[in-house]
Amino acid sequence: MDNVKGHFIVFEGIDGSGKTTQINLLQRRIEENNFICHITKEPTGRPVGSLLRQCLAGSIQTDELTLAALFAADRLDHILNDDDGLLKKLQEGISVISDRYILSTYAYQSVKVPFNWVMDLNSMAAGKIHPDCHIFIDTDPVTALRRISEGRPGTELFENEKRLTDVRDRYFELFDKFKDTENIIVIDGTKSIGKISDEIWENVSKYFTRKGDA
Ligand code: ADP
Ligand code: TYD
């Protein structure tokens, strides 16, 4: 790893599991406590991430192999870019929260693409920075899809019951595979928003430092 001082916390889960809701609540608690933190997400808003968003929305058609390569490229740019790259933030001692990271590619892309190739594509990213913890919000696909349809019109590429069921199964296979190297905290995403938020705070508040103490 490249000499990092900040902590790196990642949120994972299927689409509609409640990640955005919980990261927003966590951000509020971080601000109330005067903690320092950089909050970010994948796909990014940078050039490769923007291309991915168009693929996910269906305005650009592509294949699953190309998508896997684009997610890996967006991740490298997320880590390495000079503006607000994760490596730079972590080296400066700033803790980072990311809505999705490498396990998203392992879980979503390995449904259609050989897992070993997906891992190879991400090996450079995996060698650069390593999450201190992954918060997995576990919501079943039927509940998650109902929430999505109540919240906005239309669906994105992977927002169907078959794919999200496969992806959730992959996540649990990954948790078993990486149980000795990754710190994965599974939280029941069907509980109330407030209860989930409290549980997350109990697990992650230790990773932040106050302004001036970094
Ligand atoms: P994600 O970012 O994982 O796609 P969101 O946070 O956007 O998920 O949540 C999807 C929808 O579900 C939103 O409308 C949100 O208000 C709702 N939601 C999130 N968490 C819960 C929960 N624990 N109980 C009920 N509804 C929830
Ligand atoms: P996101 O905006 O987090 O969707 P949601 O808020 O609904 O969870 O992610 C966009 C989509 O991209 C989502 O379907 C998951 C998918 N994705 C991958 O397939 N692989 C990846 O590596 C990443 C980061 C996201």
Could you explain how this protein is built, in words?
The chain is α/β, with parallel strands linked by helices and 214 residues long. The protein has helices spanning 19-32, 47-57, 64-80, 86-91, 102-109, 115-121, 123-128, 141-151, 161-177, 193-204; strands spanning 8-12, 38-41, 96-99, 133-138, 184-188. Strands 2-3-1-4-5 form a 5-stranded parallel β-sheet. The longest helix has 17 residues, at 64-80. The radius of gyration is 17 Å and the shape is globular. The chain starts with 7 loop residues before the first strand and ends in a 10-residue tail after the last helix. 33% of the residues are buried. The protein binds adenosine-5'-diphosphate (ADP) and thymidine-5'-diphosphate.
SSE topology sketch:
Elements: E1 8-12, H1 19-32, E2 38-41, H2 47-57, H3 64-80, H4 86-91, E3 96-99, H5 102-109, H6 115-121, H7 123-128, E4 133-138, H8 141-151, H9 161-177, E5 184-188, H10 193-204
Parallel strand pairs: 1-3, 1-4, 2-3, 4-5
**CA-based shape:** globular
- Range of helix content: 40-55%
* SSE string, helices as H and strands as E: EHEHHHEHHHEHHEH
Q: Averaging pLDDT over every residue, what do you get?
A: 96
Structural class: alpha/beta
Give the N-to-C terminal Cα separation. Answer: 20 Å
The number of strands is 5
Q: With helices defined by DSSP (H or I, 4 residues minimum), what is the helix count?
A: 10
How many whole angstroms does the radius of gyration measure? 17 Å
Order of strands in the sheet with the most strands?
2-3-1-4-5
